[in-house]
Design brief:
133 residues, alpha+beta, Alpha-Beta Plaits, six-stranded antiparallel β-sheet
Length: 133
């Protein structure tokens, strides 16, 4: 678990689908789910939910265009914490995408809306509970 890194993108709450589950990344058809990037954070002071959701939605094309992208959702907990859930084909794809997205000016409004001192990022192996059809 990382704390206090430049971008550290589990709460119950409202879910916002930022891309459809199973959406293909730049490589074509959706890969098998193997890595979940789970980033929990609070919004920066003065940032409204509407402004944050707009900034998050604006990053969808950037994230979805990365090799190995599978899906992304955003949730808001009752305690005010947010979680960005991103599924990747593998850990290497997740790490490469993080570096690319963080360096892209299109992500700046999204990053500025987050309280960086509150961010925790984890990468976890996805373990299917049933065989995929």
């Amino acid at each position: 678990m990382l704390r206090h890194s430049p971008f550290r993108p589990l709460c119950a709450g409202a879910m916002l689908a930022l891309a459809p589950a199973g959406a293909a990344g730049a490589g074509g058809s959706a890969p098998a789910l193997t890595v979940a990037e789970v980033v929990t954070f609070r919004l920066a002071d003065g940032v409204t939910e509407a402004a944050f959701r707009a900034a998050a939605a604006a990053t969808v094309p950037l994230a979805a265009g990365q090799p190995g992208f599978v899906a992304r959702t955003l949730s808001r907990g009752d305690d005010g914490r947010w979680t960005d859930h991103v599924l990747w084909a593998d850990r290497a794809a997740a790490e490469a995408a993080a570096a690319t997205v963080m360096a892209d000016p299109a992500a700046a409004p999204f990053m500025a809306a987050i309280d960086m001192d509150s961010v925790v990022m984890r990468h976890e192996t996805v373990l299917p509970l049933a065989p995929r059809p």
